Batch of 2 targets.
Target 1
Amino acid sequence: MARADQAPGIRPRVTLGRRLDIAARYAFPAGCTVLLMLLAVAPYGIADQAAMLPAVTFACVYFWSLLRPGAMPPPVVFVVGLLLDLLGYLPLGVGALTLLIVHGLVVHWRPILVRQGFVAAWLTFAGFAAGAAALGWVTTALLMFRLLPVGPVLFEVMLAAALYPALAILFVRVDRTAADPDRA
Amino acid sequence: MIRISIQARQALAKLTLPVLIVATFGLMLLGKADAVLAERARMVLADALAPIYAAIAGPLGIVRGTVATAAGLWDVSTENARLREENEQLRRWQSIALALDAENARLKADLHWVPDPAPSYVTARVVADAGGIYAKAVLLSVGPNHGIRKGEIALDERGLVGRVTEVGARTARVLLITDMNSRVPVVLENSGAHAIVIGTNGPRPRVVYWPEGSMPQEGERVVTSTEASAFPANLPVGAVHYSAAKVPEVVPAAMLDRLEVVRIFDYGLTDIAAPEAPGRLPERRGR
């Protein structure tokens, strides 16, 4: 149920339409993450486009784990990670593992992180992206049993850090309007 | 819904993350043990997404074309001069090629030459990059009854692109010669020496294992060899170029960074295909 239902007060009757509205607002973080992932792999013909998918996924999972962990629970992170593995041609499980660890750490440090300003959140994200990319690189190298080039991973981290502000501004706007369950 | 106490529910909520992390390790093991499963899941997803990509490829192509035209207007006069010069050169080459072609036909007629059988091929559109960050591959959209098999050879209009590694119902994945898992047996055209071209995930694969005394020369053409019966002979791979670190590399003849349409040739050479899981039934052709 919506947060509004746990607080006393007068509110409209729960009709089917309103239920759907609330559900859609709850599903927004997961839905927009999957949509952005699918958009990130669309054929734009840009060089080194492959780095876009993990960058966008890290940014989405980090942002929603920080802002609304209730709407980005571990099972959703797991499914997003699986999609990252399949779309990004990584060995199965690598994306899911890195994203779950990112999610777990963000939720664990959330009390400290939410009090920080935008720049601090951005810098923390850059750190998380670097850690996640490094973990993904190590696990992929272990599973493939060979040394992988480091260049694409560095590019992926830089792209993630560069994309984050744009996505965060967009998400904050949407979170306060269309995706806010309290406004249903 | 099952009613459980708040404490139990909180405990369950705390357990979800560790359980899922353990599940990812299970998934890794599963992916390692049964590579076909992951491959099949990927191709199912690719089959579902390929029509969407194919639909948006049109508008995206228009945008890209407009941008390219705008960029082309900038240096149109220098480009024109360069093309004029190149055209002169190509005209000279054309006359030489025509003369050689005529001579070749005459010699073949004299020798009662049996021509190679023309291989059958399927033309397919490249719909997406299918490499991820650790691989170089492209996804092709093919018809439902395509009959493409693993190990077939992809060429664009200029040269060798790669080999088919995964086949779905409407899609096929081609591993490019620049991928770090790619190994192509080649012949250096001037010396006739055999060598191997190995991918590095960079734009230019490296030439290795040439025989002692026949170093690859700068600009030398590199063509495939029939070694190990993975490729037919004499498909153009590229030209040798020495990198700054004096390592012989191949500049691919195919335009691997902007592939649009490729042809998949069936030379009947599928001796060395991608490894398959034991016990798997061979795929039937022409379903």
Note: Residues 274-287 of chain B have pLDDT under 50 and may be disordered.
Target 2
Amino acid sequence: MASTSPILAARSVTKTFTAGKGHDVVAVDNLSLEIGEGEFVCLLGASGCGESTMLNMFAGFIQPTSGQVLLRDKPITAIEPRCGMIFQSYALFPWKTVRGNVEFGLRMQGLPRAERRDRAAAFIEMVSLRGFEDHYPAELSGGMQQRVTIARLLAADPEVLLMDEPFAALDAMTRQVMQEELLRIHEQSRKTIVFITHSIDEALILSSRLFVMSARPGRIKAVVANDLPTPRHMAVQVSPQYGELKSTVWNLIESEVRRHAVEAT
Amino acid sequence: MSDLARHERPAGVLSAEGTPALRAVSPAGSRNNRKSLLLPTISVLSVLSVLTLWYLSTERGWVSPVFLPKPGRVLDEGIANLANGQLLTDIWMSTQRVLLGFLLAGAVAIPLGIVMAVWAPAKAAMDPFVSLLRPLPSITWIPLTMLWLGIGEGQKVAIVFMGSWIYILLYTIESTKRVDPLLIRAARNLGASDLHVMLHVILPGALPGIIAGLKVTLAISWSCVLSAEMIAAQNGLGALIWQGKDWGNLALVLVGMLCISIVVLLADKLANMLERLLLPWERHQRT
């Protein structure tokens, strides 16, 4: 990944929010990072460490106060459909069926109806929701809804998948299934994925590299290469290598969490 | 206003009985059955006892027929007016005026409301007029509309229009503003243009609220047409009631009032059916 130019990059990015009465909050402070094509990276840190702010800047929802976010060396200055976002709260269109939701991006691209149907069907199949095409989101469970959002985004075919704690609202078992499915999807599509999580285990199971972030203001505290063997089934998760990596990461995060906790009280 | 309240109640507060999905899976328990029979029975008994009281009080002379006609008189009056076609003509005339004024109000207020909700300058331009017009009851427009439009159909429609459009406008603005901004963001992230966001997100997102507003406004439209007809009209239910009053025929007045209730109730039922047809996704709300 070091040999090719990065697909996504942040260069000295600072983002300040005005919290009223001239009270400014620095969410991200002079942060730089590079993400290579096809990588699966996790942003890991205590909540409120500016990780969602970073993701929103990559999607073009917000602009940095100073510095630049780049997609293939071009600054991201408006909402960028090539960086597709998976929201924690799903953000499915309640008035569209599963098929209507999955077809949405294709429809925006002006694809003819028949082709839209076929492509959507393939992605609905991919996330194991065949037979639910005509259901409305409200009729589905949380895990199923999140799979619809993944199918909807993959059908729109962005170059980067930005995922903001996508599985946080799911129960532990559904979460594990979804993690495995996401890895399978990454394997198949080779898309670049930037994934926010507060779970070290989730980060270790999913990522090829993880960025440990410091608590407010958000900075990169460390970049940890994750060379655990794949697939990362139970056997890997109980291996000494896994435990070592986990404690390394925990040591990096612990002081941040404690600092944050003290500030909060 | 009860329709609005129902529309805005968060899904989590919905009772188990009100949830179609839950009702479908729960076995028809004997307790449920007994409860579902008990409440309608109470309603029927309540109506019967009021009717009986009415009958007794007029039959025994506790109340003078000058103040309250006998139920039989009202029935006769209703049948007579049905038979000579007068009642149906009046119902149809009023309905026609309501529909014209109401549809016209919707055609103006819904697009205007959406524009005002998404484009601040439009709202700034319109807000002073909305504030001035809102407190005015529709009957205050009767002198001006008569001067401008005479006492024909146009004037009645104008009264309905003036009494209805502001409410539709306010409901439309409110429900358009309440469309989840996250959905708009998601749509743009999936490549939607401004027009696509409007067609696929803002319009369907605002639709349930707009329809709830239309339902509330429809009843208001009816009260507008009735007051207009009472003041100056040859026909219509309002005119019928006023005739009854002028001729000292209280039975006719009651027939007119009853007709209004029935027609507005039927209109509400029809609106509910249309609502279910237009909002298929709302039928499936789970808790």
Note: The first helix of chain B runs from residue 2 to 8.
